[in-house]
Design a protein that fits this description.
The complex is a heterodimer of chains A (about 300) and B (about 250). Chain A has about 300 residues and is α/β, with parallel strands linked by helices. Chain A has helices spanning about 15-30, 40-50, 70-80, 95-105, 210-220, 230, 265-270, 300-309; strands spanning about 1-5, 30-40, 55-60, 85-90, 110-115, 115-120, 120-125, 130-140, 145, 165, 175-185, 195-200, 225, 255, 275-280, 290-295. In chain A, about 60% of the residues are buried. Chain B starts with a strand and ends in a 5-residue tail after the last helix. Chain B has a 9-stranded mixed sheet, with helices on both faces. A two-stranded antiparallel ribbon of chain B has the order 2-3. In chain B, helix 3 packs across helix 4 (about 125-135). Chain B has about 250 residues and is α/β, with parallel strands linked by helices. The chains are: A alpha/beta (about 300), B alpha/beta (about 250). Strand 8 (about 130-140) of chain A pairs antiparallel with strand 12 (about 215-220) of chain B.
Amino acid sequence: MKTLVIAEHDNNTLKPATHNAVAAAQAIGGDIDILVAGADCGAVAEAAAAIPGVSKVLSADNAVYANQLAENVALLIADVAAAYDNVLAPATTGGKNTMPRVAALMNVAQISDIIAVDSPDTFKRPIYAGNVIATVQSSDVKKVITVRTTAFDGVSEEGGSATVEAVAAAHDAGLSSFVGEEVAVSDRPELTAASVVISGGRGMQNGDNFQLLEGIADKLGAAIGASRAAVDAGFVPNDYQVGQTGKIVAPDLYIAVGISGAIQHLAGMKDSKVIVAINKDEDAPIFQVADYGLVADLFQALPELESAI
Amino acid sequence: MKALVAVKRVVDYNVKVRAKADGSDVELNNVKMAINPFCEIAVEEAVRLKEAGTVSEVVVVSVGEKSSQEQIRTALALGADRGIHVEVEGRPEPLEIAKLLKGVVDKEQPQLVILGKQSIDGDNNQTGQMLGALANMGQGTFASEIKIDGDSLEVIREVDGGLQTLKLSLPAIVTTDLRLNEPRYASLPNIMKAKKKPLDVTNPEELGVSVTSHITQLGVAPPPERAAGIKVEDVAQLVDKLKNEAKVIS
């Protein structure tokens, strides 16, 4: 059995989500190769080759893949996948964008967001915002899968020495082009990779009050998140959103501030190791999942917390 | 230009869905159903494009059992012009829904197809992208803003690190993210009017699609429960617990 893992990267660095996807591939078993599709992405291919247990890295280094346009990359993956039994990608916005296109080109179903591998054709995945875990079996000969990164501990980054092989195929669907991007620049760790996350909800009352979280985040080296309610209210941008339709996080410490704990939010953070909730409503559902609950006015508690840590 | 919007009937987002006691499936008896929230955003966007004069007709399509016609009527009440119901039994998989939608696209020849980025039942996030591949159209997924300019579409997408802008040639697929718009409420007169708007019913045979199953659901189970925690008295006790009991801060 052979599995192809699609690398997540920005042409310069290999993203840790790739290591989580390789872990899922190991749980399935068999040989593992990695496909790096990008432009001037040699350093990424080298980093992928250093992952222990990887047999081969396929490097499709071409301008048409520079911005990971789904229309182009999907054609490449479907082409390369002919030689594989499984194709896996992390369920990041990149993987979610491209992989269903790959599956449709291959005329197979996609199994989204797996959290466990029961056997090479049977997987567990959350449905209904994680209120239910479904066990699903695929009858497709070739499987296209996206991996919930928080459910698989990333494999080691060093120690391997896979060969790097160039893939010449340049697929340009001619349907789309890249115009630009606005990447949030922050000194803080990325939300999905942070070991501490502090999130604010509707209880923060406005965007300015998120500054109360920043001082604490700086001291703890934490990323800042938000509930959908806070995003909908326009307090913070959508890339802060933790939940069913936002980011899925599982840090060592998750601090929920002024968040009531709607099921859609819990879906994005309830696998965190330690959960702290600060809310003035003692009946808020967030307290049912919190290891430590503090019933308090956040405008008093946050400055106190900042000076106590 | 014509816009086609796909909508799905799902369990209302306020309902906490549970597994049946025998673990065979989720409990869907006597549960409130509604239009998928992301599909509602898709309808709203198409209607706004029509109000702006960019789109001339908004056609709404739903693949599902007969009851899905309720959600088509909801979309018609929000301002769509006519509906198409592709009647199928059971719960078709995203790939099959995409194939059926491709059949509708071939017939209707829309310049723009808008779908929700995911439905809140299966949480698959697949159908729009699959339709893009099958119909050989470009895709602007997780859209927070779209702008049509002649025969192309500029779309701003919500991605992990921030925002990305793409240019797509029309016809194209858009899947909606939360911030694309805030859907209106249907007024009573519009709900009444919607009952008289045309709604055609078709089926997989008429569209030339054979629906097959690739995935078997072997069972469902509740997620592991978190053990209930404790309430702390004040910030000092919280910090003490985090340092000395949980050992997550130093």
